[in-house]
Amino acid sequence: MMLTRELTINNKSGLHARPASLWVQTSSRFRSNIKIKHGNSVVDGKSILGILSLGLSTGSVFELLVEGEDETEAVVALEKLMIDLESQDR
Amino acid sequence: MDKEITDYSLKRPSAELVGYLTYLTPQRIQIFGRTELGLFEQLSSDLRYENLAKVMVQEVPCLIITRGLPIPQEFVRLAEDRGIPLLASDRSTTQLYYLLIRFLANRLAPSTLVHGVLVDVFGIGVLITGDSGIGKSETALELIRGGHLLVADDAVEVQRVDEENLHGRAPQSIKHLLEVRGLGILDVTKLFGAGAVRDEKEIHLLVELEEWKEGKYYDRLGLDPPQTLTILGIPIPKVTIPVRPGRQLASIIEVAVMQNRLRSKRM
């Protein structure tokens, strides 16, 4: 079973270097296979350069694809991270 | 102008100008050179507009008149009415054809983003794939230190340039960067010099790194039929290399490249 979520970037700076590294730190804690789909591009959700190559900025919508033994926990943690990033702006 | 060019071939309508419309192909860029305009001028003045109107249909993405030839009134009128961009070029039709086809075939080629690292090893484009954390970037670093070239790390834009070839390059924003856990993001050009990178490379060989699994079958004799993986419809030879501490992946990849070269010569 694969879990998918559609997420929107709501923080001011988008998924640039620092937020992207937080994302990778979080996603790397899990054993599941994590991918990010944006337009026609799919990149590894545990790789910082992959994420940076997508150039996700405020308002960008992407799809999160998670598959593996701890997929539920991974999705929860990454969704929480997105909310945390947004609240840091305030 | 919201016309989109989706077809890389071009059209020189001449038979169509005199009413043979079976192979009109209006989705292509229409090119009018000496021949077509000459023919157009042979038509009686009342037929000109009528026939041209059947060629310059709404669907036409763009129309180009070559050699800097004077543009007849009818073209301007139809272009305005139907919202077709009307362009002029000083080049001859043949020159323009050559330039445009090469450019369009390149721009309209199917492409995809692949998770992996692309390196040039002994002039052979090697795409290293495998799960995250398996050591693709570390292997690439070893290869760079050994004098090979980095094309792209982590995300590789792969483009099918023709019926047989795939080209890979880095997305602009992460060009010539390499991420190694513990060191961070490295600028390969600054660290190793401009001679350690290249912008684009044909992909000849796929090397998949995977965790060594006890009990899994691995080729021991090198006699197994060669594996391939199809990307964008093109099969690429593939080798699977199990990873275990103490295995020198960079040397193994160098040898895989040499072996692949020997094999392809034998065939």
TrEMBL record, chain A:
A cellular component term, taken from the record's GO annotations: cytoplasm
SUPFAM superfamilies on file: HPr-like (SSF55594)
Cited Pfam families: PTS-HPr
Keyword terms, alphabetized: Cytoplasm, Phosphotransferase system, Transferase
GO MF annotations, alphabetized: transferase activity
Major localisation: cytoplasm
Domain of life: Bacteria
Any one of the GO BP annotations: phosphoenolpyruvate-dependent sugar phosphotransferase system
InterPro entries xref list: HPr, HPr-like, HPr-like_sf, PTS_HPr_His_P_site
HPr domain residues: 2-90
Transmembrane segments: none
Subcellular location: Cytoplasm
Family annotation (PANTHER family): PHOSPHOCARRIER PROTEIN HPR, PHOSPHOCARRIER PROTEIN NPR
Function of the protein: General (non sugar-specific) component of the phosphoenolpyruvate-dependent sugar phosphotransferase system (sugar PTS). This major carbohydrate active-transport system catalyzes the phosphorylation of incoming sugar substrates concomitantly with their translocation across the cell membrane. The phosphoryl group from phosphoenolpyruvate (PEP) is transferred to the phosphoryl carrier protein HPr by enzyme I. Phospho-HPr then transfers it to the PTS EIIA domain.
Protein name (record): Phosphocarrier protein HPr
Organism: Desulfosporosinus acididurans
UniProtKB/TrEMBL annotation, chain B:
Region (Important for the catalytic mechanism of both phosphorylation and dephosphorylation): 178-187
Catalysis: reaction(s): [HPr protein]-O-phospho-L-serine + phosphate + H(+) = [HPr protein]-L-serine + diphosphate; [HPr protein]-L-serine + ATP = [HPr protein]-O-phospho-L-serine + ADP + H(+)
Domain HPr kinase/phosphorylase C-terminal: 107-265
Residues the record lists as binding Mg(2+): 137, 179
Region (Important for the catalytic mechanism of dephosphorylation): 242-247
Domain HPr(Ser) kinase/phosphorylase N-terminal positions: 3-104
Alphabetized GO MF terms: ATP binding; magnesium ion binding; phosphorelay sensor kinase activity; protein serine/threonine kinase activity; protein serine/threonine/tyrosine kinase activity
Free-text domain note: The Walker A ATP-binding motif also binds Pi and PPi.
Family: Belongs to the HPrK/P family.
Classification via HAMAP family: HPr_kinase
Protein name in UniProt: HPr kinase/phosphorylase
Organism annotation: Desulfosporosinus acididurans
Encoding gene per record: hprK
